[in-house]
Amino acid sequence: MATKVIQRQRQLPHPVAAPSMFHGKEVSQFHTRLLRTSLALEESRAYWEHFRIDIPREQRAVVAFEERWFGSKSMARVRSLLVEFSHRFEAYPMSLAVLKHWQPNDPTTRQNICHWHMQLSDPIYRNFTGVFLEQRRLQPNSDIDRDIVARWVTQQLESEWSAATTFRMATGLIATAAAAGLCSENSGMRSLKYPKVTDEALAYWLYFLRDLYFEGSLLSNPYFNSVGLFDSFLEQRLSRLPGLSFTRMGDLYDFGWHYVDLKSWAMQILSGRDYANEAKWEEQA
Questions:
Q1: Which Gene3D superfamilies match (predicted)?
Q2: What is the C-alpha separation between 250 and 231, in angstroms, rounded?
Q3: How many domains does the chain have?
Q4: 65, 78 contact by CB (below 8 A)
Q5: Global confidence as pTM
């Protein structure tokens, strides 16, 4: 029997309305931007801090370079980062507004969020971390190296690449996965591992996925699979998350959403910032 998944609003004294529309979808078209920009943890943090919606897109690179959003990086590198971040973050305005106001201080939370946004915007990285690495974990020798990953990359391609480009992509995938905490950072053979996932990062991504078109479900998807959150491990975490209630009875799952959307969750749950100022949110949304 197929598992039934029910998503409904928690009955509050003042019931919240269901979300009116989806805010986007995961990227499904293959691209090679990973060859130029990997996880970019610190650059992502700087982007959340400095991004302003009032800067015209055609002027953004000049402003970012002159204001040194990314330190001493060259204009060419600044342009490359802005292009990539437009796909990872700007394509989802509500999420970017939350990240700009939140700017999470916890490095693990930032690592989790950057990894999931990378998966969201890059299908080959999503398949690599959410499918291939999980298949490797089931093998007696689950370690990976550049040759193993290069063979996998070749299997994903519709046209033949040069060996040099294939190895560059394999190296980029491994380096990005290492930065996300999915494998060891030593050179050569890499052992697989799972990163820590914070409650705030998990709740953020659940509210994000709730209103997103994506393959899978809230209980089974490459995003959570890649960090070891599936089956009973995920259910245990869901039962104690802020802003959400979760119960299971046999094959029936019940999500109780305390807030109407990601923005409402952030305004009420996240502390240490002025989330109650609606006008500030509207400037970014």
A1: uncharacterized protein from magnetospirillum magneticum domain (1.10.3540.10)
A2: 13
A3: 1
A4: yes
A5: 0.89
